[in-house]
Amino acid sequence: MINLFRKGFKRLTILFSFIVVVSCAKNSDLVSYDTDQIRSSLSDEYNLRDLESSIEITESDELLLLVPDISLYSSIVEDREKITEYEYFYEMKEFNVPIVMTPRVERYLKYFTEKIPDVTQKWLDRANKYMYVVEDIFLEAELPSDLVALAFTESGFNNHAISRVGATGMWQFMPSTGRMYGMKNDFWVDERRDFEISSKSAARFLSDLYKRFDDWFLALAAYNAGPGRIHRASVKHKTDDFFKIASTRTLALETRDYVPKFIALLIIYKNYLKFGFEAPKSTPLFFSKISVDSQINLFWLAENLNIKFEDMIELNPSLKVGITPPVDSYALRVPYGRDKEAIDLLSKTDKSERLRYSIVNAKSGSNIKSIAKKYSVNLRKLKDLNCLDGNTILRTKPILLPISKYSNSDMDKGISKLLNKYTPKYYVVRSGDTFIAIANKHGMKTTSLKRLNPSIGNVHRLRIGQKIVIKSR
């Protein structure tokens, strides 16, 4: 087997048993590898404690990787145009995006296959539900189909994944980027969680990034860090080679590790059986769509179609409270082949029966007791349904009012459980509290806490009884 080395490379202490290099997307060369060889090479003494310590349990109980403060980059691709010999193995796997093997890619291969294989298997299982949808969207956008593996890097194909800084959904869009690409986010929906809408936005975003940088490594890094930051780093180091830039500390370590993580997960995804993983247990998420012209309560619809409420939510993950938004036309997903039955059901019911609740728009500062009294609704039931702690409405929002003839405790609990995920959580200022102390108490940076509370002018002048937002969904 031919070993490839960059001249003068002194930091490498363990010889590669393989190197795979695929030219940039501008080039159609394809390279294969033998994953048995990869697994063998990964049994070395690499210390993975730095990676193990980078695991965080998110609010959605998902394992998301946070990169450790360590840099292990090879510059082996510095003279990639001078490398003319490749090792071809007996079974070829083709890629349509660049593949480069570096020590960091090896570490992530070892990590995902040997340290957290259960998590990786979970990702593979879940990905099978959405992969055909995402691949079709990317192919329609004329993107390399291998880019679908980026959703592993971002969220493990989890529509409900939330990062510490508020990036959400399968493609982890920040609110600002989501708005830039036309995704709605209000009381009723967060389209960053919709696997079709967000995938189309991700395809547009990736296309825009590639048009700007003309290099997939830089485009992927820009997806993580933003195009401005990658452009400045490229100008600073006078190169468009991601790995040259990544060998410095100009970019955050998260971004320097982003491309190696993607490469490792792509290799695993295209060879999961050879890495010892099982075929995905899940089946593709097939569905039909119906157009609805009034608000529909998914709990009611699921009950009448004899479908699990959870299955309807899985098909429509952008619906925050399990109720379609108040728009003239909304595309609602139902299990495949159940569209005619659903349309027939809707044609036989009126708007109030489909919604099962009345809705009032309460302004900031409104008193929930007054609302309960005005509409003759039990106060405790009203507060429980809408996940309200105090009696004052702190932010203008719709309030769901129970209707006695449609009363259903299971429905109320299901709707409330969903609503609770998106209800801001508050901390009431006590005597002796400081802004810094409140941030530390809840494991937050003061800048993050300030971002959640833009109305607070002077953080050094808090009032006893003042409510501070500590979590906003």
Tell me about this structure.
- It is a single chain.
- The protein has helices at residues 35-41, 49-52, 103-115, 117-140, 150-155, 175-180, 195-213, 216-225, 227-237, 242-246, 253-269, 298-304, 309-315, 339-347, 351-355, 368-374, 379-385, 409-421, 435-441, 446-452, and strands at 55-57, 63-65, 287-292, 330-335, 357-362, 397-402, 425-428, 467-471.
- Helix content is 40%, strand content 8%.
- The radius of gyration is 25 Å and the shape is globular.
- Residues 1-92 have low confidence and may be disordered.
- The N and C termini lie far apart (53 Å).
- Strand 1 and strand 2 form a beta hairpin.
- It has three domains: 35-269, Lysozyme (Orthogonal Bundle), CATH 1.10.530; 286-356, no CATH class; 426-471, Membrane-bound Lytic Murein Transglycosylase D, Chain A (Roll), CATH 3.10.350.10.
- It is mainly alpha-helical and 473 residues long.
- The strands form four sheets. Strands 1-2 form a two-stranded antiparallel ribbon. A two-stranded antiparallel ribbon has the order 3-4. A two-stranded antiparallel sheet has the order 5-6.
- The protein has 20 helices and eight strands.
- Helix 7 crosses helix 8, helix 8 (216-225) packs across helix 11 (253-269) and helix 12 crosses helix 13 (309-315).
